[in-house]
Recover the amino acids of this structure.
């Protein structure tokens, strides 16, 4: 099978979502071990006007969900941002993994021949093909939130490393 | 043309390297405006045992360079980590953009049918195909360093936003 839009999106995002879940496990264990209120980590931010950890995780999950939905032309389920602890955030990730794993390569790869439109603060932005949407927006946006979640937990002292990010280890 | 390994690697990384260069421009302007020694930003880290900004930028450049080299089977040029200011870091990025833009889609896509091996601290890791290497390692690793560079400069007060990261704006 030739490499496809599906290969560059769903399996990669599923893998990274599992890794993000492992990062949250390590954060929860760190909080328990050090007697830290988990809320302090869930509220942590890299800068005062950036999203906190909860919103970074929710945004990573939403980014994967939107990628599958937009590439397939489906309407994604709504997931309100109500999570307030590590278990709930992991649940949010698990819901999205189940959702995106429900798509077939054929559904996703149909985007190769059509445009994808995303809302912006101004005019909606039109990508000419699913591949343009994936590489110019969806992948960079997804990794932004996964890496920022990693970075802010790393800054909070959680013992995670590059291999946690890359492979959940 | 069908979506390919090339589409999911070289143009996306080139675009993000240009955006990273724009981020450095904004950091340099911020330092000049606020009378901040640029060295304090170049040495900044999210955590004491993480790479500083210079190493994050060098690592992002190296990640793109290695991606093109490994997917094509070429040996990449060596770029020693000697950069100590924003202009030099931008020069490092520019060298890598020129290098990776020198590859044709055919050279990169030949990796679809062969394995890619990367060194690790233990045994070398073998990815069965170029696509596996790209999605399980190269893309996540590249975005890790770009996003971390963004995050630490954002934390240093540089006026950058998601659109700087996504589009250099």
């Amino acid at each position: 099978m030739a490499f496809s839009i599906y290969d560059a999106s769903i399996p990669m995002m599923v893998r990274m979502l599992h890794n993000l879940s492992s990062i949250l496990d390590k954060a929860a264990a760190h909080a328990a071990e050090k007697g830290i209120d988990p809320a302090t980590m869930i509220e942590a931010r890299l800068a005062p006007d950036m999203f906190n950890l909860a919103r970074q995780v929710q945004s990573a999950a939403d980014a994967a969900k939107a990628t599958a939905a937009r590439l397939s032309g489906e309407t994604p389920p709504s997931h309100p941002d109500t999570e307030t602890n590590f278990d709930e955030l992991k649940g949010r990730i698990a819901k999205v993994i189940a959702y995106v794993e429900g798509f077939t390569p054929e559904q996703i790869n149909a985007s190769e021949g059509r445009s994808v439109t995303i809302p912006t603060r101004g005019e909606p932005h039109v990508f000419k093909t699913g591949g343009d949407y994936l590489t110019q927006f969806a992948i960079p946006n997804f990794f932004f939130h996964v890496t920022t979640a990693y970075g802010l937990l790393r800054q909070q002292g959680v013992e995670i490393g590059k291999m946690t990010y890359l492979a959940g280890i």
User: Anything to note?
Assistant: Helices of chain B lie at 10-34, 38-42, 53-72, 86-101, 105-109, 130-155, 162-167. Chain B has a mean pLDDT of 97. Chain B is about 60% helix and 5% strand. Residues 95 and 148 of chain B are 21 Å apart (CA to CA).
